């Protein structure tokens, strides 16, 4: 059994997923399995995974369901059940992990605690320009390479440059809440099962935050590592984002906060 399971969610974007899978092939910590949580992609995603498998050092499980609109919570629950490790890292199929991504999550894990990481958002032109070589040489995490590609000088660049004491300082004093972020978070499988995973009524917009709020209600602490657990987020359209879905999600989240709920009746166990 591997010490870590990595769940990567995806939907009809095999090019971005390929970059992410190459990113995990560059990890310094290698004792992990991969579960691709596929929310109904067309066959070319499975074909990509099958083609890549012989070239990757890690094992991949491809968990797929029929396309029925945005059902990320449902496929994540299926992927959680499919994992074989005690500790789970979750990220998205448009987030390339830095080479120390799994290691940072693994060495910082604590009992009854989940880790909240961040991301560095790239514009579409740079997202499209990144090659397998750029991932293997870690160019897409090199701030000078990104500046040469046109990235402006902003405070968020510290996500890529902060090291050691500085990254710890930024992690401690960042104004951002240490919430569960679907693109970069990790926790213990037993804690995830104790709140019954994700609420499958949720569509796009805060579905990861709602899950994290139930973990906090259960007594699980959160740990901020947005300047240490680093991934770059490739740009994409969000055609599944609707005001109706976000409004419905907010009603569910409000109820969770008011009732201090820990369990969803619409999760892994029905």
| Number of domain units | 1
CATH class: Alpha Beta
Mean pLDDT: 95
Portion in strands: 15-25%
Distance linking N and C termini: 28 Å
Helix content: 25-40%
Rg is 18 Å
Q: Structural class per helix/strand content?
A: alpha/beta
What CATH architecture label applies? Alpha-Beta Complex
| Discrete helix count | 12
Main beta sheet: 7 strands, mixed
Which strand order do you get reading across the main beta sheet?
3-2-1-4-8-6-9
Strand and helix order: EHEHEHEEHEEHHHHHEHHEEH
CATH-defined superfamily? Spore Coat Polysaccharide Biosynthesis Protein SpsA, Chain A
Low-confidence stretches: none
What overall form do the CA principal axes indicate?
globular
Can you tag this structure with a few keywords?
270 residues; alpha/beta; 7-stranded mixed sheet; 10 strands; 39% helix; globular
Describe the structure.
The protein is an alpha/beta fold and 270 residues long. The chain has one domain (4-259): Spore Coat Polysaccharide Biosynthesis Protein SpsA, Chain A (Alpha-Beta Complex). It has twelve helices and ten strands. It has helices spanning 14-25, 43-52, 72-82, 101-107, 124-129, 132-136, 143-148, 158-161, 164-173, 189-194, 207-217, 243-259, and strands at 4-10, 32-38, 60-64, 87-92, 95-97, 113-116, 120-121, 184-188, 221-224, 231-233. The protein has a seven-stranded mixed beta sheet with strand order 3-2-1-4-8-6-9, sandwiched between helices. Strand 2 (32-38), helix 2 and strand 3 (60-64) form a beta-alpha-beta unit. The longest helix has 17 residues, at 243-259. The chain is globular. The model has no long low-confidence stretch (mean pLDDT 95).
């Amino acid at each position: 059994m591997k010490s870590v399971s990595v769940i990567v969610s995806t939907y009809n974007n095999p090019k971005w997923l390929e970059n992410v899978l190459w990113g995990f092939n560059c990890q310094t910590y290698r004792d992990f399995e991969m579960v691709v949580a596929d929310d109904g992609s067309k066959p070319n995603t499975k074909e990509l995974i099958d083609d890549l498998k012989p070239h990757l050092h890690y094992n991949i499980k491809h968990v797929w369901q029929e396309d029925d609109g945005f059902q990320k919570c449902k496929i994540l629950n299926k992927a959680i059940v499919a994992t074989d490790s005690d500790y789970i890292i979750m990220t998205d199929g448009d987030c390339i992990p830095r080479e120390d991504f799994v290691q940072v999550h693994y060495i910082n894990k604590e009992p009854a605690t989940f880790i909240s990481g961040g991301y560095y958002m790239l514009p579409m032109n740079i997202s499209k320009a990144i090659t397998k070589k750029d991932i293997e040489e870690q160019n897409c995490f090199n701030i000078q390479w990104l500046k040469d590609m046109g990235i402006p000088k902003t405070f968020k660049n510290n996500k890529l440059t902060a090291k050691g004491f500085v990254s710890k300082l930024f992690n401690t004093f960042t104004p951002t809440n240490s919430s569960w972020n679907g693109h970069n978070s990790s926790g213990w499988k037993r804690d995830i099962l104790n709140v019954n995973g994700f609420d499958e009524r949720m569509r796009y917009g805060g579905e990861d935050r709602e899950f994290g709020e139930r973990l906090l209600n259960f007594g699980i602490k959160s740990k901020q590592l947005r300047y240490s657990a680093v991934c770059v987020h490739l740009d994409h359209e969000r055609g599944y984002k609707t005001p109706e879905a976000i409004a419905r999600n907010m009603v569910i989240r409000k109820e969770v906060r008011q009732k201090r709920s820990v369990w969803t009746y619409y999760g892994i166990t029905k």
